[in-house]
Fold this sequence. Notes:
With 221 residues, the protein is mostly beta strands. It contains 4 helices and 13 strands.
Amino acid sequence: MNKPIDAxxxxxxLPTELFELSGKLDYARDAPIITIRPHVVSPxxxxxxxxxxxxxSHETRTxxxxxxxxxxxxxxxxxxxxxxxxxxxxxxxxxxxxxTDLAAIANSRHSYKLTRFRGRDLATPWGCQVRYGPWxxxxxxxxxxxxxxxxxxxxxSSVLDMQVDWxxxxxxxxxxxxxxxxxxxxxxxxxxxxxxxxxxxxPSSQSCLRNTINCPGIVPQ
Length: 221
């Protein structure tokens, strides 16, 4: 058996059942590859019959985060000579010691082959590479203007095309299979304030006032 064929034979099949726990193996929207497209996680907020606005303004905080998640990239490999030159032997890689060992995670790459897709054999087997990151992500916190409605949080990562939303507190982030998020809820990268519905910003008072109240120093016409 020559080197290219031997390299192909030693590659394990992509464990789609493992990676599809929280996403779908599908063609990418913007590239000729097969990848994992994470499911959108968005729990429904409680329905309030008669919401009341009891804040004049609310905060929005943006946090930076490291996201660990399997990013799968599969491409056609019509020539086994090409496959033989792809990356290091996955059996020789040292696994990360723990979830915060970002340096080891960044260097970790695993190679697989994909011979079946959507229940059918592929005419040309595809070669796959899986990396776990760390990927850059952002978490946006939006304070509710109504005490009856929970605050909202949203995690996103453009690299992974990922969106995870949840109500409540930072500790209420839903558990997503294969996903680890490293961030500090006590240190936002940016904090802004916006007026709540029914209020407007008054430069003269540097505050949000009800629309029915004139800004200080402004004479009604």
